[in-house]
Amino acid sequence: QMADPFLYNTGERSHYGCLGHEVQIEYLKAYVCRPSSSTDKAVIVVHDVFGWRFPDIRYIVDLMAGHGYITICPDFFKGTEPWKSTDHWADFPDWMKNHDPMKVDKEADVVLKYLKEQCGAKKIGIVGFSWGGMAVHHLMLKNPQLTAGVSLYGIVRDSEERYSLLNPTFFIFGEKDHTISLDQIFLLEDKLKQYCKVPYKIKVYPGQVHGFAQLKPEDMKPDDKPYIEEARRDMIDWIKMFV
């Protein structure tokens, strides 16, 4: 049995009734939740391998909207099948080849245009989880329209150009994440110190495994709950500081 390369246990999940609605933007579907008061600030949420319909991600979208941001989670898989917990790990590398988190630039541009032209957004942040964390790291190196980013347990691994961030970026990791070793985190920190010209932050949460921060309250284990809540507060504080 191969260790799950990415995932936390998705079996035990409670139902979630969403607060937002689905929209079609050009060739992309997206889930949008608006805050109660009008604003020109927006946040893009990038889903993990389970896709834009996964309840945990919609919960995060609604959470951000509750903090006063027009929040949107587009389908970065463009209508193709997300990974499912019943799929076989042996097939994961092939699935990843067809779902490359570094190939999200076009979708990001479509969503940025929609937020600016249809929603009146002037400042736009981005947060992403796992697969989405890699996409956020990539986009924060490439797209200056994104005012600030938070990457949760996802990093661009194999590029020497991965340290010249364009805007403030916060990296959140779990100490017990078996997909991202502490060595990789120390290397990232070291290189950012050398090359990065904008504010950045790296934080490791004790005892936490990959995927810890997007659990809904009723799915949290009591020991993990303080760290999950802290990571979410930290994510929101970073966005509030810059967006």
TrEMBL record:
Family: Belongs to the dienelactone hydrolase family.
Alphabetized GO MF terms: hydrolase activity
Domain of life: Eukaryota
Gene3D superfamilies: alpha/beta hydrolase
GO cellular component labels: cytosol
Subcellular location: Cytoplasm, Cytosol
Xref: InterPro entries: AB_hydrolase_fold (IPR029058), CMBL (IPR042946), Dienelactn_hydro (IPR002925)
Organism in which the protein naturally occurs: Sitta europaea (Eurasian nuthatch)
Matches recorded under Pfam families: DLH
UniProt protein name: Carboxymethylenebutenolidase homolog
Principal place of residence: cytoplasm
Dienelactone hydrolase domain sequence ranges: 28-241
Phylogenetic classification of the source organism: Eukaryota, Metazoa, Chordata, Craniata, Vertebrata
SUPFAM superfamilies: alpha/beta-Hydrolases
